[in-house]
Amino acid sequence: MRFKLFLLITNIFAFEIKNESNRIMMKNYFSLFTFIIVLVCFSCGDEVLSDDPDKLHLLKQVFIEDELSFEYTYTNAGLIAEEKSKFHYSKHTYNSANQLIQSDFYRDERIASSSLEILNEAMQRTEWVSPDNTEKDNYYTFEYHASGKLKKRTMYRLNGGEITIDTFIYNMDERIERRISYYENKKSVYDDYFYDSKGNLNKQDRYFISEDGTSSLQSTRTYEFDEKHNPYLSFRALMMPGKNTNQNNVVKETYIIYSDPDANRTMEYNYEYNIADYPVKRDDGFTYVYY
After folding, report:
1. Residues 198-207: contacts with CB within 8 Å, 24+ apart?
2. Between β-strands 150-157 and 279-282, what pairing exists: parallel, antiparallel or unpaired?
């Protein structure tokens, strides 16, 4: 828009004042020029607003190998409301302060089956999972400190009655530094998180805690990033460090399992970006569509 108006201005004043009539006409052109300048200024203001990633760059859909695989909706405040897919559905609820207070999860349990026949049945489904056709599998509730930082996350599994509680420790930058998980009121696992200068999670160490209280390092994930916008940052209200909190996109991921070196792996990704520096394609078949 700005460029088109600039061309219009250029064309209007691309003339020579050769006689008195042209001098009179110039007054009219000057008035038109003033109007256009005002219009350009308003247009510039609109363009600044359009760079707001929370309003105009919300992730809408993800295609994998040209098949629609994920779809997302948001609240009026731009917070993730629903995550939809063929096998999973989640719904997120917020309080009046836009803090996440509950997440409900539904899934087709057949995809976790060890039976190839049952698994194949699940793969053949055409209707996506939703609360209308699938029972709720589990849900999370969230509690906060007075400062607004996440204090506790509790997971309730409906079928098995299991309860898992996560508590959090923060670093000086008020980012989650450690997540401690309790199962049946006993510490079972904790994760340590490390960040780069931009706030991207560049390392995660996971420790298992034995019955006698000793801990052992089980796995390490490390990440490298590009310099572009992360489309999943619009999910940051979900708060867990990583994909939903990173400023940029992962270009390299290394996963080390200390008890099973054969399972170690490294993955690298390349992206194509739109004019706003958000990814639109990843070289493993992912395509990103925005609102």
Report:
1. 198/225, 198/247, 198/248, 199/173, 199/175, 199/245, 199/246, 199/247, 200/225, 200/246, 200/247, 200/248, 201/241, 201/242, 201/245, 201/246, 204/241, 204/242
2. unpaired
pLDDT tens digits for range 117-128: 998 988 989 999
Tens digit of each residue's pLDDT (9 = 90 or more) over 54-75: 455 899 999 999 999 999 999 9
What does CATH list as the number for 59-290? Answer: 2.40.128.720
Residues 6+ apart with CB under 8 A from 269: 249, 250, 251, 252, 282, 283, 284
Beta bridge partners of 138: 105, 157
Domain boundary assignment for the chain: 2-49, 59-290
Residue 195 has pLDDT above 50, yes or no: yes
**How far is Cα 78 from Cα 250, in angstroms, rounded to an integer?**
23
